[in-house]
Amino acid sequence: MRAEDLHIDTLLAADAEVGALHFAGHRAVIVDAAALGALRRELMATLGPAEARAMLTRFGHVQGWRAAEALRGRFEWDSEHAIRDAGGRVGILQGMLRLMPGTGPMTPEGATVGDSYEAEQHLLHCGKAEAPVCWTLAGFASGYLSCVEQREIVVVEDRCVACGDATCRFLARPREAWGEPAPSRDPALAEEAWETRSPAMRRVLELARRAAAVDSNVLLGGASGTGKDRLARFIHARSSRAQAPFLALHCGAIPEPLLESELFGHARGAFTGATRDRVGMLEAAGRGTLFLDEVGEMSPAMQVKLLRALQQRELRRVGENHARPIHARVIAATHRDLAAAVEEGSFRRDLYYRLRVIELRLPSLAERREDILPLARTLLAAACAKVGRNKMSLGAGAEERLLGHAWPGNVRELENAMERAAALGAGPTVEASDLPDDIGSRPRASGGSLQQLERAAIAAALERHGGHQQRAAAELGISPSTLYRRLRRGG
C-alpha cells in the first residue's frame, strides 16, 4: 500500500441501519466546519488564546496518533516512508486541507498546505491573526508522525493564511532537533510536562495559570532544581504574550559590569571593546517576558538600576543619555529567602515588593514524594529518546532507592539520574545498580528508614483517598497489587 492508494471508499464505512460511521475502523462523526470555528471562538473567549491553543493542539495530537495506529493495523504498507506520507493523504480525505504538490511533512522545506479549514474558520469567527493558528492541524501532524516514528516529532506552523500568507506551511523535526525549549512545550505539551499528583504542586500550577492571565510581575521561590525556569515558561506560554519572545538571564552567573550591559544594552564606544551598539535583554524581550533567574545575587548597585527601570518602565543603554520604553513583563526567581535578605539589608525592600506582586514557591521533590516515581518514569522515557534507545521501565530495586533518597538536587538531580540509567543501563529495566551510587545512600531528610518513608507515603495517600487502595496506588504510581504487598509487608 502506498499513500496515493488511499481513497475515501476504502476508509469510510457506514452502517445504514444504526447510522454509525467508521473511518479506518474507528468510530467517526461528521461535523460542520463552521461549528468547529464557533467552538474555537468560544474556547478563546473563555480560556484565552494560549489555553485554547494548547487544548486544540492536544486534540489534534490524539486524532493524528489514532489515525496512524489505525492505518498501520489495517493495511500492509510498502515501506515506512509510505505510511509516513499517508498522514497528509488522510488530512485531504477528511477535508482538513489540500497538500500542495511536491511537498511532504518530512522534507527540509516543510509541508505547504492550501485550503486549511482551520485558517478559514479562524478568519471567519475571530478575524485576522498575528501568529499561525492551525493548531489542530499541527497537533494532528505531530501525533501522526510521532506514532509512525515512535519518537516525539514536533510540527510547527510558520506561515498561515490567517496571518495573510498565501498558504500555510508546517515544519516537522524530532523534538531534540528544535533545541531547548522545543516548540512543543510552548504551550501544547506544557500541561503534560507538569503532570503531578502532589496537592501542593497542583496549587502552584493553578496560581500560575491565574498569574498568566494578568501582566503583574511574578517572583518564583524554591530550592535549586525545583523547576523555576520551567514554571516561568509555563506562565509565559499561557499569557497574552505567548507569541512574543521569552528571554532568560542568570543574574548570578555574569560579572556586574557585563550584567548591566546584558540587561540594559550599551552604545558603541561606551567602554573598551564596545565596538557596536548592543540591545539589552529588557529591550530585546519586546512585549514578551524576561526571566531574571537568581535575582537575589544582584549587587546593591544593580538592584538600584533594575528598580529604576521597573518603576519608570524605561531604560538607558550604557553610554546613552536618552531613555527607551520597556514593554516586557518580568518574572524573577531565587533560591534565597529574599524576605530575610531584606531584613538583613542585602536586598532592597522596594525592589523586593516591586518584583513580588505575585509570589509562587515551588515545593521541593522531598515535599512531593508522591511525584517521584511518576516523574522518574516520564524523565526516563525522555532520556531514552535522547540517547536513542528503546523505552525502559523501573525495576523494584531502583524504585526503592528512588523513594528512599532525600533529593537535595530536586528534579534536576532526578533528571540526571534517569539520563545516566538510560545511557548506561544494560537491559530493558533500570536496576538499582544502574543509578548513581549516592542515590538512596544519603541521609534522608525525614531521618526515617526506607520502610518508614514508604509506609508514611502509603498512609498519606490512603488517607487522602478515604482508604480506596486503587486510587492511592494510582497516586503513588504503583499497581494495586504492589500496594497490597507493601501493606502486608508493613504489617
TrEMBL record:
UniProt domain Sigma-54 factor interaction: residue ranges: 197-423
Gene Ontology MF, one: sequence-specific DNA binding
Pfam families membership: AAA_lid_14 (PF25601), HTH_8 (PF02954), Sigma54_activat (PF00158), V4R (PF02830), XylR_N (PF06505)
Domain of life: Bacteria
Keyword RNA-binding: no
SMART domains documented for this protein: AAA (SM00382), V4R (SM00989)
Alphabetical GO biological process terms: regulation of DNA-templated transcription
Alphabetically ordered keywords of this record: ATP-binding, DNA-binding, Nucleotide-binding, Transcription, Transcription regulation
Name of the protein described by the UniProt record: V4R domain-containing protein
